[in-house]
Specification:
71 residues, alpha/beta, three-stranded parallel sheet, 31% helix
Length: 71
C-alpha cells in the first residue's frame, strides 16, 4: 500500500492508451498526484484534472511538486 501515488506523464507527447489506462488506475487507487513533465516544451497532452507541471530539465515546478507531496 502506498501513501501517495505519483503518475509522471510527458506533456510534450500526446497521451497514449497506456497513459490513459494508468490515469484511470491511479484515480481509483486513492491519494495520487498527476505530474506533467517537460512543461518547458510545447504542450501536446492534456490529461485533465489537476496536474502538477514540472520540468526536470530546468527545475521549473519542482518546489511546488515537493510542497504538494508533503501536503
Amino acid at each position: 500500500d502506498a501513501d501517495l501515488v505519483l503518475l509522471v506523464l510527458d506533456l510534450s507527447q500526446p497521451l497514449t492508451a497506456e497513459d490513459e489506462a494508468l490515469l484511470h488506475k491511479v484515480q481509483q487507487a486513492g491519494p495520487h498526484l498527476v505530474v506533467g513533465n517537460k512543461c518547458d516544451l510545447p504542450r501536446a497532452a492534456e490529461p485533465g484534472g489537476e496536474v502538477q507541471v514540472v520540468s526536470a530539465s530546468t527545475g521549473l515546478g519542482l518546489e511546488e511538486l515537493r510542497a504538494a507531496i508533503l501536503a
